[in-house]
Amino acid sequence: MKRVITYGTFDLLHYGHINLLRRAKALGDYLIVVISTDEFNLKEKNKTCYFSYEQRKALVEAIRYVDLVIPEESWNQKRSDMHEYHIDTFVMGDDWKGKFDFLKEEGVEVVYLERTPEISSSQIKKDLYDANAVDGESRVNHDEINTDPGRK
Q1: Is residue 8 over pLDDT 70?
Q2: Integer Cα distance of 9 and 71 in angstroms
Q3: pTM
Q4: Catalytic residue flag (residue 45)
Q5: Is 140 helix (H, G, I), strand (E, B) or coil?
Q6: Residue 113 Cα distances to 66, 90, 99, 122, 130, angstroms
Q7: Cα separation of 131 and 21, whole Å?
Q8: Under 8 Å between Cβ of 103 and 68
Q9: pLDDT of 61-100, one tens digit each?
Q10: Residue 9, burial from CB neighbour count under 10 angstroms (0-12, 13-18, 19+)
Q11: Residue 30: which of 17, 21, 19 has the closest Cα?
Protein backbone atom coordinates (compact mmCIF):
# COMPACT_ATOMS: atom_id res chain seq x y z
CA MET A 1 0.00 0.00 0.00
CA LYS A 2 1.37 3.39 -1.03
CA ARG A 3 0.90 6.06 1.67
CA VAL A 4 0.63 9.77 0.88
CA ILE A 5 0.70 12.64 3.36
CA THR A 6 -0.10 16.34 3.07
CA TYR A 7 -0.24 19.23 5.53
CA GLY A 8 -2.36 22.34 5.79
CA THR A 9 -4.59 24.59 7.82
CA PHE A 10 -7.75 23.94 5.76
CA ASP A 11 -9.60 26.96 7.11
CA LEU A 12 -12.46 28.12 4.90
CA LEU A 13 -12.46 24.82 3.02
CA HIS A 14 -13.00 25.35 -0.73
CA TYR A 15 -12.77 23.53 -4.06
CA GLY A 16 -9.04 24.27 -4.36
CA HIS A 17 -8.50 22.21 -1.21
CA ILE A 18 -10.67 19.43 -2.66
CA ASN A 19 -8.65 19.48 -5.91
CA LEU A 20 -5.40 19.18 -3.93
CA LEU A 21 -6.72 16.29 -1.83
CA ARG A 22 -8.13 14.47 -4.89
CA ARG A 23 -4.80 14.74 -6.72
CA ALA A 24 -2.84 13.75 -3.62
CA LYS A 25 -4.98 10.64 -3.15
CA ALA A 26 -4.42 9.71 -6.81
CA LEU A 27 -0.69 9.39 -6.01
CA GLY A 28 -1.29 6.47 -3.66
CA ASP A 29 -3.71 4.22 -1.83
CA TYR A 30 -3.98 5.88 1.58
CA LEU A 31 -4.08 9.64 2.23
CA ILE A 32 -3.15 11.17 5.57
CA VAL A 33 -3.99 14.84 6.06
CA VAL A 34 -2.19 16.69 8.83
CA ILE A 35 -4.06 19.78 9.99
CA SER A 36 -2.37 22.60 11.91
CA THR A 37 -3.77 22.93 15.41
CA ASP A 38 -5.09 26.26 16.66
CA GLU A 39 -2.08 26.60 18.99
CA PHE A 40 0.42 25.86 16.20
CA ASN A 41 -1.27 28.35 13.87
CA LEU A 42 -1.19 31.08 16.49
CA LYS A 43 2.29 30.41 17.90
CA GLU A 44 4.23 29.52 14.73
CA LYS A 45 2.23 31.04 11.87
CA ASN A 46 0.82 34.04 13.74
CA LYS A 47 -2.62 33.30 12.32
CA THR A 48 -6.05 32.74 13.82
CA CYS A 49 -8.51 30.49 12.04
CA TYR A 50 -12.20 31.08 11.58
CA PHE A 51 -12.95 27.42 12.38
CA SER A 52 -11.42 25.58 15.33
CA TYR A 53 -9.10 22.62 14.81
CA GLU A 54 -11.89 20.19 15.72
CA GLN A 55 -14.27 21.81 13.21
CA ARG A 56 -11.63 21.80 10.45
CA LYS A 57 -10.80 18.18 11.26
CA ALA A 58 -14.48 17.16 10.97
CA LEU A 59 -14.77 18.92 7.61
CA VAL A 60 -11.66 17.26 6.17
CA GLU A 61 -12.63 13.82 7.56
CA ALA A 62 -15.87 14.08 5.58
CA ILE A 63 -13.98 14.25 2.27
CA ARG A 64 -13.98 10.90 0.51
CA TYR A 65 -10.33 11.10 -0.56
CA VAL A 66 -9.09 11.35 3.04
CA ASP A 67 -8.32 8.23 5.05
CA LEU A 68 -6.87 9.72 8.24
CA VAL A 69 -6.58 13.18 9.80
CA ILE A 70 -3.97 13.95 12.47
CA PRO A 71 -2.88 17.19 14.18
CA GLU A 72 0.19 19.24 13.29
CA GLU A 73 1.70 20.66 16.45
CA SER A 74 5.18 21.70 15.28
CA TRP A 75 7.26 22.22 12.14
CA ASN A 76 9.62 19.48 13.34
CA GLN A 77 7.09 16.67 13.36
CA LYS A 78 7.25 16.23 9.58
CA ARG A 79 10.42 14.14 9.76
CA SER A 80 9.00 11.84 12.44
CA ASP A 81 5.61 11.59 10.68
CA MET A 82 7.35 10.16 7.61
CA HIS A 83 8.59 7.23 9.70
CA GLU A 84 5.69 6.81 12.13
CA TYR A 85 3.12 6.59 9.31
CA HIS A 86 5.40 4.77 6.80
CA ILE A 87 4.99 7.50 4.18
CA ASP A 88 5.96 6.99 0.54
CA THR A 89 4.97 10.40 -0.86
CA PHE A 90 4.86 13.84 0.74
CA VAL A 91 2.58 16.32 -1.11
CA MET A 92 2.20 20.09 -0.82
CA GLY A 93 0.92 22.91 -3.02
CA ASP A 94 3.49 24.43 -5.35
CA ASP A 95 3.48 27.67 -3.38
CA TRP A 96 5.78 25.71 -1.00
CA LYS A 97 8.07 24.48 -3.81
CA GLY A 98 11.51 23.53 -2.50
CA LYS A 99 10.68 24.18 1.17
CA PHE A 100 10.30 20.51 2.06
CA ASP A 101 12.90 18.90 -0.19
CA PHE A 102 14.84 17.95 2.97
CA LEU A 103 12.25 15.18 3.48
CA LYS A 104 13.84 13.27 0.59
CA GLU A 105 16.54 12.46 3.15
CA GLU A 106 13.86 10.49 5.02
CA GLY A 107 13.34 8.27 1.96
CA VAL A 108 10.10 9.79 0.71
CA GLU A 109 9.16 11.23 -2.66
CA VAL A 110 8.38 14.96 -2.40
CA VAL A 111 5.73 16.27 -4.80
CA TYR A 112 4.54 19.86 -5.21
CA LEU A 113 1.14 20.03 -6.90
CA GLU A 114 0.01 23.07 -8.84
CA ARG A 115 -2.55 25.09 -6.90
CA THR A 116 -5.99 25.86 -8.26
CA PRO A 117 -5.02 29.36 -9.45
CA GLU A 118 -8.25 31.29 -9.05
CA ILE A 119 -9.04 30.33 -5.45
CA SER A 120 -7.43 30.61 -2.01
CA SER A 121 -8.63 31.12 1.55
CA SER A 122 -6.86 34.49 1.60
CA GLN A 123 -8.69 35.54 -1.57
CA ILE A 124 -12.05 34.45 -0.12
CA LYS A 125 -11.42 36.54 3.01
CA LYS A 126 -10.45 39.57 0.91
CA ASP A 127 -13.42 39.19 -1.42
CA LEU A 128 -15.87 38.87 1.47
CA TYR A 129 -14.41 41.92 3.17
CA ASP A 130 -14.53 43.95 -0.06
CA ALA A 131 -18.09 42.80 -0.84
CA ASN A 132 -19.28 44.01 2.55
CA ALA A 133 -17.31 47.26 2.65
CA VAL A 134 -19.01 50.64 2.57
CA ASP A 135 -16.70 53.65 2.50
CA GLY A 136 -13.78 51.35 3.27
CA GLU A 137 -15.42 49.77 6.33
CA SER A 138 -16.77 46.24 6.41
CA ARG A 139 -20.48 45.82 7.09
CA VAL A 140 -20.82 42.26 8.28
CA ASN A 141 -23.17 42.74 11.23
CA HIS A 142 -26.73 41.85 10.19
CA ASP A 143 -28.04 45.04 11.79
CA GLU A 144 -25.81 47.11 9.48
CA ILE A 145 -26.86 45.43 6.24
CA ASN A 146 -29.80 46.90 4.34
CA THR A 147 -31.91 43.97 3.15
CA ASP A 148 -34.73 46.17 1.83
CA PRO A 149 -33.94 47.24 -1.76
CA GLY A 150 -36.55 50.03 -1.47
CA ARG A 151 -34.82 51.59 1.54
CA LYS A 152 -31.67 53.67 1.22
Answers
A1: yes
A2: 10
A3: 0.82
A4: yes
A5: coil
A6: 17, 11, 13, 19, 29
A7: 29
A8: no
A9: 999 999 999 999 999 999 999 999 999 999 999 989 999 9
A10: buried
A11: 21
